[in-house]
Design goal:
Layout: H1 2-21, H2 24-31, H3 33-53, H4 57-60, H5 64-78, H6 85-113, H7 125-128, H8 132-138, H9 142-145, H10 148-163, H11 172-195, H12 199-207, H13 211-237, H14 242-253, E1 274-280, H15 285-288, E2 291-292, E3 295-296, H16 299-307, E4 309-311, E5 314-315, H17 322-332, H18 342-345, H19 354-359, E6 363-369, H20 378-384, E7 389-391, E8 403-404, E9 407-408, H21 410-427, E10 430-436, E11 457-462, E12 468-473, H22 480-504, E13 511-517, H23 525-532, E14 534-535, E15 540-541, H24 554-559, E16 565-569, E17 577-579, E18 583-584, H25 588-596, H26 608-611, E19 617-618, E20 624-625, E21 629-632, E22 637-640, H27 648-670, H28 676-687
Parallel strand pairs: 1-10, 1-13, 4-17, 5-18, 6-7, 6-10
Antiparallel strand pairs: 2-3, 4-16, 8-9, 11-12, 13-16, 14-15, 19-20, 20-21, 21-22
The structure holds (2R)-2,3-dihydroxypropyl phosphate and manganese (II) ion (MN).
Amino acid sequence: MKEKLQKGKKKVINFFKKLKHEHVIKNYIKNNRLFLVFVLVCVINSTMLRIFTMRTAENIFAIRPIIADLGLVITIGSFSYLFKGKGRYRYLSIWAVIFTAICMINSVYYTFYTSFASFSMLSLAQFIAPVGDAVVQNVLQLKDLFYLIPLFFFIFYYHHLAKKGEYKKYEKKERKKKFFHTILVGAITLIVFCFTLSGLEVGRFIKQWNREYIVMRFGIYLYQGNDLVKSIQPKITAMFGYDEAKKKMEDYFEGTSDVQDYTNEYTNILEGKNVIVIHAESLQDVALNTTFNGQEVTPNLNRLIKEGMFFSNFYSQVSVGTSSDTELTFNTSLMPTQSGTAFVSYFDRTYISTPKLLKEKGYYTFSMHANNGDFWNRRAMHESLGYDQFFSKENYDVKEEDVIGLGLSDKSFFAQSVEKIKTISAEHDKFYGVLITLTNHTPFSDVDKYGEFKVTINETVQNEDGTTSVVEHPYLEGTKLGNYFKSVHYADAALGEFFQEMDEAGLLDNTVVILYGDHDARLPKADYVRMLNYDMLTDDVKSTDDPTYQEFDSYDYELNRKVPLLIWTKDGTIKPQVVDTIMGMYDVVPTIGNMLGFYNKYALGHDIFEIGDDNIVVFPNGNWLTSKVYYNSQKEEYKPLRDEVISEDYIKENNEYTEKLLDVSNNMIVFDLLNSNNIKAQNEEENK
Ligand code: GP9
Ligand code: MN
């Protein structure tokens, strides 16, 4: 045995000696310089992207995605040897540009969505354009341009080689040999990589909805290639796999009653009332709980919260469709789709929605939003959701002086909307109307138009002569979070005016107002750290060694993304109370359905007054939240929220529930499973 080992060792040493002696490596490098630079450029860029986006130690020191990138880049690059002279450079440079573009686009995309880009989003590019201002100011950063440096180096290096006449021309036979050897190396690298994968990783790669998880393990290029396939797939799978999807949905809803089979103290309490829903753009709970020098950011909302039913642990469940995803979930209790968005890709499906169910009870239904009606494809989708009328930009008088940020200011929007509601109220017995606000939209940079609201800290100091004076510390002035508070303060003032105008018109007398924040404002974590740990002496963040330093980790950030939900009546039908149960946007349909007297069998959420503390909020990326745990499915880690031991089974069961719910929801939309013909067929089958 020992002898064998010795022999083996000798052989390996001899092999390397031979390599050294014959200058094999040196010659290989010399003869394949351009190819090697190409490989380096592509791998450096992808590694840089991973490090700049997901800054965990696990990701920074990960070797496997580098192996995956190497395998793919070498394989693709190997074909360059089939080209002669300049053709080879052209081939490599086209791929270098493609790979660099993938890194740059994902870098920008990650800053905005904390996720990676998808080809299925290409059809949504038109909705990104109107927020172009926001993208440029908010998103395009110096780091996004770093990826150009290796690319320029590659181009420069080729010209350098060509100029010195060192750019190799090979004979056909030699080229073929080089191609064969190189593709073999690429393939072996990829095979080695495949052997390192676990079943779970392969499963997630196939499903593709957990994008960070995939990039962290497979690298950006394999992710993007797989994404391309997955983005084309829905168009094809919508034609296949219907039966299986239908079966899964039937299993999921088996045992769910066709009619509401319970009552509680809230059943029908709001029946017959008009409903006004306010979709408050980017409104987060943090704004309600913050004051500056004794001044509330949201005095009007805070007053309404004291008068109504406030849900203090309420989360939106959006994916890349942001505002539109919330509209979908709020009205249908379904989750956003796994690729693309329901509003754009699946607007032609059948939805069972709150407007439709209220219409059956004699309501007139409408939506109002002063932006372009095609944004998020609302014009088409609002019809699918069952709104009788959609008022968009063309129905509003948009004067230049009334424009803030993305469009018509909330104050003007509300004032003009009240006039329209007056007419609707006069013409219809009862109504359900949704008002979608716009001013409080990222990047919150139209600060001059929000009105005076300082986000400073005023300190009263004692002077030597015994008098006092006030020193103003900048605190959050100039930060994005600070500007956000200014913007919310404006939005709150607009809301105050709306309530007043509605009241003066007598429109609140028999009305319930439901207000929600549509999603968080994607504010930088560093700004929250500054807010919590401001040092007045240095105008900087306290040192982490300071005993008063407050941690704000990624879980704190996630939990802080909660948004308000308020149900309010002027006549006191709704009694003032704070409901602190963990709740998601998909729980709204069953909860208000019970109050208004309608029932949606295919809701994925629950009446919060029935489910209580057993509730789970599922997020589109596979994360979930219960009263006990926030679970991060990318990291496969969780933060306990109570002083309680969490069993493995608890995590496993909730993970299974999450995957099943997301799958069923996606199938219901993609395969149009709520189409009455399909449901009818299902009932007939059951009655056989
Ligand atoms: C656009 C508005 C904003 O009309 O609803 O959409 P968002 O960017 O929040 O998805
Ligand atoms: Mn929004």
